[in-house]
Amino acid sequence: MEKFIDIDRAIELILSNCKIMNTQIVKLEDSYNRILASDVYSKIPIPNFRKSPFDGYCLKNYLSKGATKEKPVILEISGVIKAGDDISGLVDGVYKIMTGAEVPGFCDLVIKNEDTDCGSLKVAIYKEGESGENIIKIGEDVGAGIKIVDKGIKIKPGLVAMLASIGMAEVEVYKVPRVGIMTSGDEVIELNQELLPGKIYNSNKYALMAFINDIGIKAIDYGVAEDTLDDLKDKIQLSLSENDVIITTGGVSVGDFDFIEEAYDMLNIKKLFWSVKMKPGTPIMAGVFGDKIIISLPGSPAASLITYEVIAKPILKYMMGLSNFKPKKYIGIMKDNFKKTSNITRFLRVLVKTGHEGYEISLSGKQNAGILHSMINFNALVEVINPDKPVMIGDKVQFSFINEDL
After folding, report:
1. Angle, vertex CA 220, rays to CA 303 and CA 170, nearest 5
2. pTM of structure
3. Residue 382: which of 355, 353, 346 has the closest Cα?
4. In the list 102, 107, 293, 322, which could disulfide-bond 317, CB 3.0-4.6 Å?
């Protein structure tokens, strides 16, 4: 087991011991927000026929030659073409055409209604057109055999529409990892219990479930483990049997009632590391049991959520099959001072807004590991790369958004 390691090393150790989930086939209507598991190629061109983008009139372009508002060209109308009509039997002529309808091969121009008098039997053309004008070509959107999208992205409404347009009724996606969460500590009580002296409500449970749900996973709650080795071991053992990933909070430091490491040993969980060079959240442990991953976060509320965001979240996103599982890094300008220094990487809870200087960053509140109030409005974490120096107003700092869309 490695100790007091860099953040990147901690993530690397877990990644080397976990795998991307297997795939499954789902109906297109059930694929929203799932992760695409295979590259998608179009088997047909989109559109697969020449199409009118407007209501108007289709004709040969030479028939519009010299047309102006003052001297319109008057043409007889041979018929009407609606979207979905079979035009194979049409004879050469001028046709009133609707948006989305197929343009006959003998026509090479669509004149919009706005450039006509919108006649029914005859039409006055007010504008000379060019060959190919206002006609969507076959394959103009996507050609046959062209790759539409790479695997590893979240399926959003626009992609659902594209897949439907190529007739894709089923989609290969990655299975969603089963994630169990468990809190520990005799001081932790549920929301429906009486708040007696020395007790605290189980904020870690609800916060973690919300954070995990934010990336598309519904975590399973395994309750609160008592500050005893047996109860902690039993709850971890149960959650290991039913999930792909287990995330615990509390009991991971070096106190008299911190039993996480002993529970790992009793259950033959291979310990990957203990303690990471980051604040808040130094005491964090991770292990592997067969193909199951367990990540044990600190019990302090802010430390728990920040270590989830920095270490556990990228692991879950990787297992989900996301190609961009690592957070994007941005640069912004600090609008507050943070003078406390450290010898290891520090993360600040901040509120990022767009201003005249680009990204402008303010502290969202107090930065202590046990403070939750600063989590209410924060939308990003600043990674203090040179923690031995204070962060001052005007400094350029590196940050990542905490809820950036996948």
Report:
1. 115
2. 0.89
3. 346
4. 322
Angle ∠(309,311,317) on CA atoms, nearest 5 = 75
Find tokens 């998608």 and name the residue.
Answer: 40
What the block records as the tokens of 139 is: 């394959």
Are 318 and 18 contacting, i.e. CB atoms less than 8 angstroms apart?
yes
For the chain, report the end-to-end CA distance as a whole number of angstroms.
32
Token representation of residue 151: 């695997």
- What are 320's two structure tokens? 């989900």
Question: Could you tell me the CATH superfamily of domain 2-22+176-320?
Answer: MoaB/Mog-like domain (3.40.980.10)
| Cβ neighbours of residue 155 closer than 8 Å, sequence gap 6 or more | 31, 32, 33, 34, 35, 36, 163, 171, 173
- Per-residue pLDDT band for 403 (boundaries 50, 70, 90) equals confident
φ and ψ of 305, to 5 deg: -75, -35
Domain 51-125 adopts which CATH fold? Molybdopterin biosynthesis moeA protein; domain 3 (2.170.190)
CB 189 within 8 A of CB 200: yes
pLDDT tens digits, residue range 81-131?
999 999 999 999 999 999 999 999 999 999 999 999 999 999 999 999 999
Residue 149 has pLDDT above 70, yes or no: yes
- Please tell me the distance from the alpha carbon of residue 267 to that of residue 254, in angstroms, as a whole number: 19
Written as six digits, the tokens of 195 are: 């708040």
Q: Which two tokens stand for residue 348?
A: 């600040």
Of all residues in the chain, what percent carry a pLDDT higher than 90? 88
Q: Return the CATH fold of 24-46+147-174.
A: Molybdopterin biosynthesis moea protein, domain 2 (3.90.105)
* 188 φ, ψ (degrees, to nearest 5): -90, 130
| Interatomic CA distance for residues 212 and 217, integer angstroms | 6
Q: Which amino acid is at 367?
A: Q
Name the helix (H) or strand (E) containing 123: strand 122-125
pLDDT at 284 over 90: yes
For tokens 């200087």, name the residue. Answer: 357
Q: Is residue 379 a contact partner of residue 402, using CB atoms and an 8 Å limit? A: yes
Give CA separation, 246 vs 178, 195, 237, 251, 397, in Å.
Answer: 9, 28, 10, 15, 33
